[in-house]
Amino acid sequence: MAAVALLSESVLGWSIFALVLLVILAFCWVYIRKYQSRQDSEVISTITAICSLAIALITSALLPVDIFLVSYTKYQNGTYKEWASNNITRQQIEDTVLYGYYTLYSIILFCVFLWIPFVYFYYEEKDDDNINKCLQVKNALKYTVGFVIVCSALLLIGAFVPLNVPANQNSTQWEKVTYLFEELGSSHGLAALSFSISSLTLIGMLAVITYTAYGMSVLPLNLIKGTRNVAYERLENVEDIEEVEHQIEKIKATCTDGRPLSSRDRCALHQLESKLQVLHRRERHLEIAEKNCCTMFCRALRPFKIVCGVFFILVALLFTIALFISNLDKALHSAGINSGFIIFGTNLTNPLNELLLALQPVFPLDYVLITVITMYFVFTSMAGIRNMGIWFFWIRLYKIRPGRTQPQALLFLCMILLLIVLHTSYMIYSLAPQYVMYGSQKYLLQSKLPSVDALMGNSTTGMSKICDADAPEGRSCSLSCARRGCEESV
After folding, report:
1. Threshold 0.85, pTM exceeds
2. What is the C-alpha separation between 203 and 182, in angstroms, rounded?
3. Which end of the chain has fewer CB atoms within 10 angstroms, the N or the C?
């Protein structure tokens, strides 16, 4: 019966995962197609952008799945379900999620250091006069080698630097080298991967400070401010048309006596006529947009957008307070710099952590909330990149605009999102450390109570408590893989 229950749970889990995957792919395709330029587009850059964005969203969606699986093995009273009563079964589930993290992180390394740079330089080497694809691929690979060297250096540093040297001082150099490779083989290269991911996470932290923080401000403000009314834009466009027509008539009035126009007037007249054609074309587009059902529907949703904007401002304030309290807790009660300031349990009241714990009894509100929080960071990051554009220090490289975004800008957008997603798991752990560590798990605390009947002696009763750092070691409070990943990264 336990095997049948485990099989049904696995089928249900994989079915939900497949459905989420299809939704993510559809969203990525629509998003990239909406923003990519209609004139400057290429199949390979479009596919790369869609797949990279999908990988970023799937990686961010793995954290709620991780917390759900850790908690779903138990009942609300703290006892394990029948199909999860075996330690081997629980270990297999945890290993599956952990391998999922490592697989997605390896794909992110591949995208950041090889795939996206190659496609970027491949498009940069594109020349209308030169149709030699082999030369184009050769030049793109030549520039991509630099990224591969950096990735190799990070992997080598992560593989060999953390390893302990043999305690025997009389061992030869060959024995020391052999020992290092044996240690590397025993860890299956996870130390190298962890160090490389941690290095990219540090860069992702800078991207979060730059783009995510800005997106958390600009997204609600744009919802409150709203877009310009189509009717108002038509009125402005009509005024511009009348002004241009007046200028054209003024220039033509100078030659009513038959004198030819000067070269300067002819040039100005040609520019004004071209501008008038553009304004008339815009007038037709605005007229169609004003009668569009989507425009009327968006106009009806205006109060709802204002409410959402105010709500997102309150959410941003909640996250700011939660991060401040969590960092203060780390500064006062953490295990120190050697452990990456990891805290065991919560010593200060964290409002977001308390909210998630309060929602545990009502399934599945806590999982919905942690999923919304994860997606909130992703979409605010996308909003920040979209409004700021791609910058290199004080130089703006690309703009993100609907229907006019260059392929290089979309590749940069996806790479930045991949780096931000790497830092999101650690940031969410800082927001709600207790919940991310244990999820909604509980354990049974056995206590002895005196019985009424003296012959019966003491009776044993069990009381379910929420898993925390103070739980006894034998109470089987499993750590989420995201929490274990934070420990390994430091």
Report:
1. no
2. 31
3. N
